[in-house]
Amino acid sequence: MRLDPVGEGPLVRKELSLAECYELCRQVQKAHSRTYYFSTSLFPKEVRPHVHALYAFMRYADEIVDNPGATSLNEQLAGLQVFEEETLAAVAGEVVSNPVLRAYANTVVACGIGPDLIRAFMGSMKMDTSVFRYRTYEELEEYTYGSAAVVGLMMCRVIGARDEAANPHAEALGVAMQLSNFLRDVREDWARGRVYLPLEDLEHFGYSEEELGRGVVDERFVELMRFEISRARRLYRIADGGMRYIPRGHRYPVIVAARLYEGILDRIEAQGYDVFAKRAETSLSHKLRVAGSCAWGDPGEVVARVRGGRGVKPGGIAITE
User: Fold this and answer.
1) Do 41 and 184 share a structural domain?
2) Are 269 and 136 members of one domain?
3) Lower CB count within 10 Å: N or C terminus of the chain?
4) CA-closest candidate to residue 253, choices 199, 137, 190, 173
């Protein structure tokens, strides 16, 4: 099921049970993100619904602002404001008709996700209605904190990584994955009027926005992409250092997701850094090879996964009506 809150209007399904709301979220994730859905499927069955709900919530907000020309920027901002208010109301216990929010609110309460993280995420979504260029990487970091680092922090709550020492590693993984998407989606983002590559980086390599719009791939662009890829890989290495904070049995899917998203960078390199002519994607066979390699690298983690995980408090995992 693909979400389209702009074309089809707000999602209203009052008749669904909570379990059916989670199933709808699963369908949304499967339709929108094959890679993330694949890694999510590796979590224990009691964790998967919460990851589906987290993804569907973020996708819903993203779809409000990712339909160029369908709505004005003011309408997008207003739509995000309404969605944020409805989200916080659902978390506070109010009855809402949006099944994505019903599932997400249950996950927020069950897993202990704070409203500050929700507001930070929505703040970055709102930035997409008014900020279309980032002068420096530091400016981009303000955006990626809410749009990506916060996702890592929410995932910590969902999978039971309670040690605060895990937080900077989780933030790094969230941002690394988003930077990988930015590099893959340069053409698509340009079509939406956005450039997520810091302008200071373009200037450093003597490459212009106008050339970016024309899809010019030359040595300057290659060097620019190498620089951005190197930055993303450094964040993946920081993320690797935090895997030990994830409880046994829940670690394997995160490792697989990290390797698959870092694999986007490998694909970009393999196609000569040309992200304009062909989208850097990974096949199902590649995903299976990566999953197998990660399992082979830590068989003890796979054994713990089969046994259902250890050291994770059960409270907050069940779906309750």
Assistant:
1) no
2) yes
3) C
4) 173
